[in-house]
Amino acid sequence: MNLILLQGSAPVPASGFMLCFIPLAAIVLGLIAFFVMTDRHASRPYLRFNPFVAANSTAEELAARPPAVGETPAGGLGAPAGKATVSLGEYGAKVTVPKEAVPPPAAPDVAASFTGAAASSVPKDFGAVKGVNLPKVDQEPEAAAAGARITTVMYSPAGSDQAGEHVQIENNSGAPLDMTGWTLQDRADQHVFTFPAFVLATGAAVTLWTRAGTNDAENLFWGSRGAIWNNAGDTAILRDASGNVVSRFSYDGTK
Predict the structure, then answer these.
(1) Cβ neighbours of residue 63 closer than 8 Å, sequence gap 6 or more
(2) DSSP 8-state symbol, 87
């Protein structure tokens, strides 16, 4: 029987332990630093938001939670010293914008106001149609105020139009009316009669004939060789010596 003698190994020097444990210690310290830094960033609101807390909290509880202050990795979000205020709340919740943050309106918010004449001072003929061919007869209201008005336009007399056509003008001013230099014209302004030296007596009427003849106190003559007034409709316009419209008479005529 052979005997084997085991010889004890020599003790390991301290340097060997250091070579083994120093890397292990470095790894442990690195892990500790990693967890510390991770926990530091995990305390930031934008990383620490817990959706289950928001889902299980009432609106009053969420509103009562104070805002958290943190610093983003990329720097501050517009706040001084790299600080940003983040408020936690329910997803999709409405936020009330502070009054001072609302931009001013484009136009001033003022009460509506109106200017102009009072209703009591509006003329009685406000809205009256003037200078438009209306059915039947259209006489302007200023005719009576001027003291003369056209009362008749005989545009389609029996027999020859040129011989029987006439316009009758009445003086209702209450005084003799000097019509010297006045004019009478048709709507197309193709025929214009200028009154000679003529005074229309108070309450009297003068007939202006299309044909030629001798003027007197009740009759004036245009002296036209053809008819003037359109049988299909026309307008007789009387103007004073200054060109102001005194009376207007429109008719539809025969179609």
Answers:
(1) 89
(2) -
pTM, entire model: 0.45
Which pLDDT score is estimated for 20? 72
Conformational region of residue 55, where left means phi above 0, alpha means psi within -120 to 50, and beta covers everything else: alpha
- Which is it for strands 166-171 and 68-70: parallel, antiparallel or unpaired? unpaired
**In sequence order, what are the beta bridge partners of 235?**
250
Residue 172 and residue 189: Cα distance in Å, rounded?
26
Name the 3-class secondary structure at 100: helix
CA-atom Rg of the chain in angstroms: 54
pLDDT of residue 32: 83
* Tokens 């999709």 -> residue: 92
Strands (DSSP E) along 68-212, which ranges? 68-70, 84-86, 138-139, 148-154, 166-171, 177-178, 183-185, 192-194, 199-200, 205-209
- Taking only the tens place, the pLDDT of each residue in 43-79 is 554 444 455 555 566 777 766 665 544 444 444 444 4
Kindly state which CATH superfamily the domain 138-251 is placed in.
Answer: Lamin Tail domain (2.60.40.1260)
The H or E element that residue 251 is part of is strand 245-251
CA dihedral of residues 215, 219, 225, 229 (deg, nearest 10): 150
Distance CA 179, CA 247 (A): 13
Contact between 67 and 89 under an 8 Å Cβ cutoff? The reply is no
**Helix, strand, coil shares, percent, the chain, to 5:** 25, 20, 55
